[in-house]
Amino acid sequence: MEQLRKIAEQFDLAGTMVSAGEFGDGHINDTYLVVCRDGEESHEYVLQRINRNVFADGKGLMANMQAVTDYTRKILERDGGDVERGTLTIVPAKNGESCVFDEEGYCWRVTHEIKGVYSASVVENAGMLRETGRAFGKFMRDLDGFDASVLTETIPNFHHTPKRFENFKRAVAEDRMGRAAGVQAEIQFAMGYEEFVHTLVDQLEGGVIPLRVTHNDTKINNLLLDKETGKAICVIDLDTVMPGLAAYDFGDSIRSGANPADEDERDLSKVTMDIDLYEAFAAGFLSEAGAIMKKEELLSLPIGAKMMTFECGIRFLSDYLDGDVYFKVHREGHNLDRARTQFKMVADMEKVWDRMNEIVLNLAK
Ligand code: ADP
Ligand code: GN1
Ligand code: MG
Prior knowledge:
The protein is of the alpha+beta class. It has two domains: about 1-115, Phosphorylase Kinase, domain 1 (2-Layer Sandwich), CATH 3.30.200; about 125-365, Aminoglycoside 3'-phosphotransferase, Chain: A, domain 2. The chain is built from eleven helices and ten strands. The chain has a five-stranded antiparallel sheet with strand order 1-2-3-5-4. Helix 3 packs parallel to helix 8, helix 7 crosses helix 9 (about 295-320) and helix 9 runs antiparallel to helix 10. The longest helix is centred in the last third of the chain and has 28 residues, at about 295-320. The chain is globular. About 40% of the residues are buried. Magnesium ion binds next to loops.
């Protein structure tokens, strides 16, 4: 609490901090809700310590976030949208910067807490996924006119699946923790996808699909929904907004949202690729972004669903083999449990592959 107070004092907050508690359930940053009292009034802020093992360039990351939120705020103003809640509002530090660094070199930032909203890690109903699709589709379409050259690549090759696959093979070969022998079935499953991992980067290099500015981490809990109406309010977690593919944004939401069970569910019979949830997300996404996409790009969306799910699976499995150094873990074997759910989803997608393609094409008509 004292350390948080020392950090919070460096920002231009209204009043004085009276409490700070852990907030949200992201796997990467440390997030706190800070309450300040100013006379009778109370003000809430979200204070975050950026994970510097993951994001080496905190300044570059914050410059991206500032540029993107400035841009989306202008769109909200133009369209008469909810400027208060429709985009994140960065609270500047007293020295005028958008973040401060502590003695250990960690970057800290503050945003206004968005009120009357919630985010969910597991889908509650198809309507919620349709809204999620609409919000991420709109986010991508809104950024269609955004100048990508101002963006720092906060994690180089973030969704370069062939490089992720190389790293996975490295983790298997090194076997730092002696865990590989116990996960041979998972390793063999993943090895079967060595050719597939090239599909999207090849399409991009061949000019078949375009590079866009994308969010790249469209996990469903990175969207805030209105508590009363269930409508999408604000896309958050802008740390990975970078040049990318529509397939990445479509794909990561399917990965996280079309599975009615938890990402770390141990009972794999509960983990399924629910085609109705897939359709609901696709309908929302295409209602906003369908018009800017040609047929090849539309057909890259289901590939993105399988690619992002597979990629996340090998990222979790690599981290398990490396000794859990990247994703936050809360129990033994946590990353392995997560890898297993992703691979179960991939196997399920193979079974409904034709339907996944048909749905996207039908919706785009
Ligand atoms: P991580 O990169 O660790 O996932 P996020 O930026 O996604 O960090 O924040 C973690 C969680 O905190 C989110 O899933 C959301 O529930 C909550 N959150 C973050 N920023 C805000 C905000 N400005 N207003 C309300 N809730 C927020
Ligand atoms: C991380 O930050 P968070 O929890 O929204 C990760 C994503 C993974 C996701 C899996 C920067 O997302 O790429 O898909 O966990 N973010 C980063 O749950 O690595
Ligand atoms: Mg997040």
